[in-house]
Model the fold of this input.
Amino acid sequence: MKAEDIINRINLIEKKAPLNGCLLPHNKTKFTPSGPKHNSTSNSFISSVKPDCSKLKGLEVSSVPYVDKHAEELRGEDIPLHVAFFTFLSYGVLLLVGYIKEFFSPPSSKERHREDYVPLFVGFESFYFRNVYRPISDCFCRPICGVPGERMTVLERTSHNNNWDHVLTGRKIDSINVGSYNYLGFAEKTGPCHDAAARAISSLGVAVASARTEMGTLEIHHELEALTAEFVGTEDAITFGMGFATNALNLPSLMGPGCLVLSDECNHASLILGLRLSGATVKVFRHNDCNDLERRIRRAIIDGHPRTRRPWKKVFIIVEGIYSMEGSICNLPRLIEIKKKYKAYLYVDEAHSIGALGPRGRGVVDYHNCDPKDVDILMGTFTKSFAAAGGYIAGSKALIQHLRMSSDAQHYASAMAPAVAQQIITSMSIIMGKDGTDEGQRRLRALKRNIAYFRKHMENRGFLLFGDPDSPVMPLLGLPKGPLSFLVRELSNRGVASVGVGFPATKITGARMRFCLSAGHDKQSLDEVLKHLNELGDVLCCKYNKHKGRADLQIEW
Amino acid sequence: MPKMWNVYESFQALLEAGPYHLAFEGFLLVWVIWLLVAAKSRPRPIKLTKKEEEQLLAEWTPEPLLSSAPDPEHPALNTRTVKGKLGHYVDLGSGPLLNLASHDYLRFSEHEGIETAALECLHQYGVGSCGPRGFYGTTEVHLALEQRLAEFFQCESCVLYSYGFSTMASAIPAYAKSGDVIFADEAVSFCIQRGLQASRSRIVYFRHNDSGHLQQLLEQQAIIDSKNPKKANATRRFLVVEGLYMNTGNICRLPELVELRHKYKLRLFIDESCAFGTLGPHGRGALDHFNIPMSEVDLIMGSLEYGGGSTGGFAAGTSFVVEHQRLNGLGYVFSASLPPLLAAAAKQMLEILEAEAKDLVPTLQHRASQLHSGLAVALPAKMCVSGSVISPIKHVAFKPSSGLTVKQQESALHRIVQEVEQRGVAVVVASLLRSKEVCPPPPSIRLVVNVRLTDAEITTAITAVADACAAVIEAEAL
Done:
């Protein structure tokens, strides 16, 4: 490969992920001019090949430069056929065994006091629960105690009746947390956020027992909404006490029968529920595929309503900023282009992207450097990056006024608790630098660095990571149910709290481990996670990345 | 000429075949022709040229995002802002007013013990839980609260939601699916209506608190069922009611409903949101009030945002029923869990309620009946107070005989609220999305009684409301 060619590629990578030098080819003679400066003798280099990287800290392995086959190619990669085959086979065997078992000893569906009733649960759902979910139910809902920060304490559970019930053993496992959505590390029990929240409880009480339109509007709610609008860059914003409800309860106020909605196939359940309640016609397009979207939107507008043959009243495109299961980032500039071309309205759910993306942490709009006014409805949640609860919708003044008048949650649900509102205000101010420090920028930089570090190392070790290189959510695909549960349990025993997701939350072959990084992680914790993953990946033979073998990657911390 | 011979042979064979055979072949021939012709006459998808397509796209003009410009006079855009705490007295900018507006029946929002518990939890857990229950959003506090709630309601199991509204809206569709029938009181709160809508079941509303009407509807259903027993055997029948109706202030007639449940094999879901902490010797709600065992209902739902003085909601019942929601309650599975500090506050609230319910509930009910009887006498003739006497929720509204339109009533009530405020009491017009409600109740001022009211305060409240009503009626000549 020609040197120029490589330099170009490297520049491309640098442009895509401007990461204060986290990714660097090591061959000094060729590359020092094109990349940020680095010190080849410092401790900040590690080699990623050997299983135990902690031993290799500080070692320098001279090598052929690492060239990343970037995003498009990696995203196109799919899990190998044999894995898909065995995944189906394992589910097939499980179901078969389940059916045989239940043929000989049918589950008792008798309820006390409800004799001769129509059974409450029938069909495949409960069969699936008994035979597929139950055996691995210990991998989910693990209780913790303490802050879900970058490290947390997981309470060990055990079961004496094949996972029907779980009991706490009393043992507490100190774990590295790569499961919580604590992207900017604001889940803290000390510091400015905590202190402000404590003051809010003392001065404003624990909760507000009234709806916003009745007596539940406190000054802090106005403050929160003004700050949110400023942060997102819109005229106004409205906030709600629950992120899920923000979608589910507001979509019906914006669209109704006669409207067309083009919804990404990986959209969150809250969006799907909101759409169902709204009565609009929904067409689903392939995940993150703008060409498919354009084809469908074009066809739909030309054809009109399939039953009444009338033109659509309004057309909406609903996408998410970062998809929590896929780790992919939506292509906002292209979406805005399509939206303008076809006169549609764009609804972006920034549940995961707000705070975690963009040079200023202002979500996917900031990341793609778009104008927030081009997105008609900007929705997001406060649960993740702000470590609070609730959600917001931001947009034009008229839109927000309309929602204030017609949103279910404004009229019937209690207002947001003051401590929660205060946590958002404080953390948002820190991200915006309003506290007078560069703490927010520091967190954003740390998150970026961690993402790049972890992803490069994982890929270099041969793991098949999905999603966008800049996304803090990283799914690891290609794990059938058995290996998935083994990995979650074993990581858990080794002190790494991670998340495994499988069917029905994903496709049958799409079962995955999901890693969520935080600004709070330090190199040591990430290295430890990588070490364990590397070992377990070898045991499970689940390193399917075709680019495996780039043994010589050098990554600066 | 072998070829000619072949044709000749075939022709001979054809002639030799019987008439039936010929008729059959003739029929086949006609059929083939018909198929070809019919296939042609079927409408073909119209293929538009690129130009035509572009023209259609250019011609299509969508409706604006908002159907009409928002009315700046709308009450929802002119809500009052509380300065400081929403406590027993509130400051709306003009000095302290007696709070008869917030649903804080037991004044737990100002209880020091609860505040301390929340603060202690904050010091240990921070604010947010940063994840749904499935993925490290379950803390010890959540588990403890669920267990305490289950004990409190004498149920096997309980699940905790992070938002009161979503509790009902998620719990109902977790069980009721399309093909099922749900009987519901027409006055059920809006969150239940959303849950019913999300279930896609057939919804049958019966007249408010009218078990006779419900029985009629059930009889009708029984007739439908007897015609198609196979379908009836797969149709689950639910009955959804509230223990204490937010929209009317009435207590539901639970004993009658329980009888009907037995007779018609209904699954009874009861929403105890408003009844929690206000009814029954233990403050457990309507079941407790009528002394009906928990086994008579299938699911108890409730919000912790009213009497509970916290945030979130719960659903309690047998493990068999309730645990299902941990995988199927949308608002449970896909939402971040309740901030631990709010769960800790709720847990502390339960401790206090358990210890003090025997004093708190009778006091509250006594205050409620004081206010009720006082208002019944003092209100002008055109207005009335409705709701059960012991219920902490009172609706002050115009009598149907007043002959006013809904709009007139609403504007008069908003005027009354302002007048009441000038007399030192904060009240609100019950906020409703009239166009979305299935059966919207008449406009009303919702008064909320709380346990800390004194005799003097109740007298003030009665005088303030009655005087304001009289003043507005006189000023507007209604």
Notes: The mean pLDDT of chain B is 91. The two ends of chain B are 111 Å apart (CA to CA).
